[in-house]
Amino acid sequence: LLDNLENNVVQSEHYKFHWWPHTDHVAAFNVDRTDKPVKTSKSWFWDYLIGFHLLQFMYWLSTFLPSLVKYINRYHFSWLKSQPEEIIDEAEKIFTFDCLFAQYVNEWAIPREKTAYVMKRLKKWLDESGFFAHMPVEVRFVAKDDIYMSPAFGRDVCFIGIIMFRPYRKFVPHEDFWNFYEDLMFSVGGRPHWAKAHKLGSQALRKIYPNFDDFRNVCSKLDPGRLFVNDYLERTLFPPEKVMT
């Protein structure tokens, strides 16, 4: 798949793939507009009993025996994603989905040409580190735009998202995976998704967003009293002036 990535990306209007860590299993999604009638394949048994309740219970068990994760990932793919299927529905139902239970999520956008390199590095680290990662690693592609603080500003990008579920809202160790992932993404010029957890502050963000100060100036004009600034925005965009030197 990685060797033929460019052809895969351009053959559909929207293309993404999911990788099940600790396996060689990948599910590719080709999404195009159509006039065909609605066609769905929802199943309470497979989507909720197996894909939610059983999955959550098994990931909970894996908090006591982490090596179970690789078997959970393998069987999840075999049972739910190993067969081709066609789904036709309205756009908001195709592009959105219910995550069902609590999770830690991190997602960055990198230059599209770095996709294969980053995916191979992620796989190598997981193979060698002894860390057991939940599925899937989501890989999606977005065209460049001209929005000041968009992760896709000025370049075609690949968003790579990692996840660790929190079965029954239990804490699941993930810091080692997160630290390696963020360092890797930053090293190839990545930019974090604004709605996902990341550790970057304003000084690091200024280096990767060429219009960082222009955006701050617009915000200052439109919101001089900083009514819409919260703790997160103080860390990423509007820290105390002494930190900005």
From TrEMBL:
Q: Which GO molecular function annotation, any one, does this entry have? A: D-arabinono-1,4-lactone oxidase activity
The record's GO CC annotations read: membrane
Task: Supply the InterPro entries for this chain.
Answer: ALO_C, FAD_lactone_oxidase-like, Vanillyl_alc_oxidase_C-sub2
Q: Which Pfam families match?
A: ALO
Know the name of this protein? L-gulonolactone oxidase-like
